[in-house]
Amino acid sequence: MEKGLLGLILLKPDRLTLRIIDLDHNRVVNEARSGSLHVGQNQIANYAENISAITNNLLGFKRLLEEYQVANYRLYGALTDMDLVTGKYVANQIFVRTGFKIEWLNKDQTLAQILAAVHNVANQQLEDSQLTGYVLNIGLSTSNLAYFKNGSYATSWEIDMGKARLSQLVDNLRQTAATPSDIILDYISSKLEYLVPELKSSTETTMLIQGADTLAERYIKEDHAVDKIPHKEFHKRYRHLLNASDQYIIRHYDVDEQSVNWVLPTYLIVRQVMRLLNVKKIYITNASILDGLEVTHNDPQFLVNMVKTAADNLALRYGADSNHKRFVTKVAMQLYDALEPIHRLDSHYRLLLEIACKVDDIGNFINPQGHYRHSAYILEANPLVGLSSQDNEIIAEVSRYHSSEAPEVDQPHYMHLDSAIQLPVSQLAAILRVADSLDDSRQQKILRVHLELVGEDLQIQVKTTDDLVLEQWAFERKNQLFTEVYGLHPKLVIVGRN
Q1: For 58-78, what is each residue's pLDDT tens digit?
Q2: Does the pLDDT at position 202 exceed 70?
């Protein structure tokens, strides 16, 4: 475990924050925040136009890190609605001007960090530490609703609205509508409508709210990270805000001239989600992305479990064969571990292979013919929470190549992959192809698998319950990639039959 001081810097569209953490004593030594950054109209993440303010603040943070003699520090940035290409331009400007290398977090990664933080404070401070209920994360551009069951992450949904986006809509409607809040409420309801069939079947009525700073400042007590909001008081404040002026909100809610516009949209979102879920207990938390980064830096297991749950949910939604999935995963992990001295990939790639084993067959939902291509398409359209864009791309491409197609030089998708991940995609796909072939009949005829390296042959010794004619045919058809990638010849050897 790391010791000493750790510096975490987070760039969000509206602010930069530095936190210095004493890892030995698990406490925050110092926290510094920038002034408000201007949020864009068309694109919330207005980093390119704010680059001077961003770099000046980072240089100030660098001096603070030097003052505390912090050698171990990391800079993260929330992509929000910014594309990766623009992110690379901004990252290069930051590096040239400050020497900081930024790691961009996509919206699925930021959600995962927020949920890790909320899960941590719920375990520590809620009367029922095994949270069963919803977490509403209100963002600037989009929001999310997540569900926890007995303290574990179960599922989440993205909601196409955020407080900054809604404030822009409010501004536009004020020019044409007498009561824009009524129209906003209808707009919010339209964004939540697709969730109604899933949510109405649930009887859970506890909700934690994250991302509502005005509520957090109002209700969270000193030394707390989560506290209860009284229903009556919330609705009283909500009704009052419907007709409150900006000047009144600035005076009474400790907000600046930019975030004053986000107060009413925040209350509108909370109110509509409360009605939809028929919430009985409502809590507010000030847990943040930085808190999540601190938690997952010390213990990444929550993120790992979340990613696996998200993959299982996707597999279930598209009707993947659960028995086949378990078999392939088990064998693929055996192969990965046995080949570690050869492929020299780390534990993170092991996780990506495990996830690919869970979802590689979801394309059968569209059409068994060419299902591997359909799997890749579904995965591209449904990135998994907690994973980077590159990680999601690797899983989609490994799934694409787990069956008939191979990652060859003239294969269009393979050609367009970043050169840094081309080999890992081939290495993982080669393992998955072999593991998948051993259950080609989907009947789990193989009881046990033992691996043994004999010269240049990788003997896969199996004990079986039935003949393996189909599996042997599939094995021979799919193992050519394995030989090309690893320089080993897989041999299927039947050592016993029950």
Answers
A1: 999 999 999 999 999 999 999
A2: no
DSSP category for residue 161: -
Nearest to residue 425, comparing CAs of 396, 383, 452, 404? 396
Same domain, 122 and 254: yes
In this structure, the answer to whether residues 96 and 118 fall within a common structural domain is no
Residue recorded with tokens 């003052």: 67
Please name the amino acid found at residue 466: D
Q: Are both 116 and 81 inside the same structural domain? A: no
Q: What percent of the chain has pLDDT over 70?
A: 95
Distance separating alpha carbons of residues 296 and 401, to the nearest angstrom: 32
| Choice between 342 and 173, residue whose per-residue pLDDT is larger | 342
Q: Which pairs with CB-CB distance under 8 Å and at least 24 residues apart come from 450-457? A: 450/495, 451/334, 451/335, 451/338, 453/338, 453/488, 456/487, 456/488, 456/489, 457/488, 457/489, 457/490, 457/491
pLDDT value at residue 173: 73
332, part of any domain: yes
498 is a domain residue: no
Separation between Cα atoms, residue 336 and residue 344, nearest integer Å = 10
432-442 in b/e burial notation, b at 16+ Cβ within 10 A?
A: bbbbbbbbbee
Alpha carbons 69 and 388: distance in angstroms, whole number: 31
Total-model pTM: 0.91
Q: Is the pLDDT of residue 181 over 80?
A: no
Taking residue 359's Cβ as centre, other Cβ atoms within 10 Å add up to 26
Structure tokens at 207: 């909700």
Instruction: Read off the pLDDT of residues 277-303 as tens digits, 9 standing for 90 and up.
Output: 888 889 999 999 999 999 999 889 999
Structure tokens at 425: 């995609």
For residue 292, give Cα distances in angstroms to 102, 148, 311, 491: 17, 16, 21, 46
Contact criterion met (CB below 8 Å) for 167 and 184: no
Q: In what order do the strands lie in the sheet with 489-497?
A: 446-454, 457-464, 489-497
How far apart CA 395 and CA 429 sit, in angstroms, is 9
Q: How far is residue 53's CA from residue 34's CA, in Å, rounded to a whole number?
A: 9
Burial of 95 (0-12, 13-18, 19+ CB in 10 A): middle
Q: Is the pLDDT reported for residue 203 higher than 90?
A: no
d(CA 332, CA 353): 8
Reduce the DSSP state of residue 344 to 3 states and report it.
Answer: coil
The pLDDT tens digits for 106-150 are 999 999 999 999 999 998 888 776 788 999 999 999 999 999 998
81 shares a domain with 136: no
Structural domain containing residue 133: 109-288
Q: Are strands 206-210 and 133-138 parallel, antiparallel or unpaired?
A: parallel
pLDDT of residue 256: 78
pLDDT in tens, 186-195: 888 888 887 7
